[in-house]
From TrEMBL:
InterPro entries: CheY-like_superfamily (IPR011006), Sig_transdc_resp-reg_C-effctor (IPR016032), Sig_transdc_resp-reg_receiver (IPR001789), Tscrpt_reg_LuxR_C (IPR000792), WalR-like (IPR039420). Residues 42-158 form the Response regulatory domain. Residues 1-29 are annotated as: Disordered. The modification 4-aspartylphosphate is found at D93. Keywords: DNA-binding, Phosphoprotein. It comes from Kribbella caucasensis. One of its GO terms (molecular function) is DNA binding. One of its GO terms (biological process) is phosphorelay signal transduction system. It holds the Pfam family Response_reg. This is Two-component system response regulator DesR. PROSITE patterns: RESPONSE_REGULATORY (PS50110).
Length: 242
């Protein structure tokens, strides 16, 4: 006689699944497209023009790998802001009045070298831009560059490359230091605007004799024959921009 216990096996029907081909593991995390992106490049904008900053911000923020972490209208605390916001790239206006982009570049290079500088300009200032490169700037770009081109320059600089806009490279990289002193430069600028020696002397608040001496000195140093030639040579070499 059989006296054992009968064990009934109940077979559970598998639950329906809306995605039969997808296997779920306990503790698994869904990876979204955003999560697959690399760390964004953190940008610090330094420009005294609100409109200019707005244009840059609206354009660059469309790039998924770029992030504007701070904006400054003045350069007094660029290093502090770069450290607080852990900026990777500082986009510094090279044209704005009231601050020295060269000093800012030097300070960032010495105090926070991991934040690289890209100088932005709207017009050629070869002497100033060349000194920016010598101070440690890793890039020079035109503010009017298309956003994809500017974004590409930022990415290249972030990778450790030096980038100089093709439209500025020839003048900037071949620039030679001016032979003119400050007084001669100011006098040639005044002469460029036209007027008599007396008018220039009044504008510069110096004597007419000093104006004549400066003009003759500038003509000699530039290898020119006339005042007009000296102005042309100085402008061509970028000596009157700075």
């Amino acid at each position: 006689m059989w006296t054992g216990h009968v064990v009934r096996l109940h077979h559970r029907q598998p639950k329906s699944c809306s995605h039969p081909s997808r296997t779920h593991f306990p503790g698994a995390r869904t990876v979204t497209p955003e999560a697959r992106l690399p760390d964004r490049i953190r940008l610090l904008l330094v420009d005294d023009q609100i409109l200019s900053r707005g244009v840059l911000r609206s354009g660059l923020e469309r790039e998924r790998d770029l992030e504007i972490v701070a904006e400054l209208a003045r350069t007094e605390d660029v290093v502090g802001a770069a450290k607080r916001h852990r900026a990777n790239i500082a986009l510094v206006d090279a044209d704005g009045p009231g601050y020295d982009s060269i000093n800012v570049t030097t300070e960032l290079r010495t105090s926070m070298p991991e934040c690289r500088v890209v100088m932005l300009t709207t017009y050629g200032r070869p002497g100033h831009l060349r000194r920016g490169l010598e101070a440690g700037a890793k890039g020079i770009a035109l503010k009017t560059s298309p956003v994809p081109q500017l974004a590409d320059a930022v990415r290249r600089v972030h990778l450790g490359l030096r980038v100089v806009d093709a439209n500025l490279a020839a003048e900037t990289l071949t620039y030679t230091e001016t032979p003119l002193d400050r007084g001669e430069t100011d006098t040639l600028r005044a002469a460029r605007e036209g007027g008599s020696v007396a008018t220039m002397a009044q504008k510069l608040d110096v004597s007419e004799r000093l104006v004549r001496n400066r003009l003759w000195s500038a003509i000699g140093k530039t290898g020119a024959r006339t005042r007009a030639d000296a102005i042309t040579i100085a402008e061509r070499n970028g000596w009157l921009f700075d």
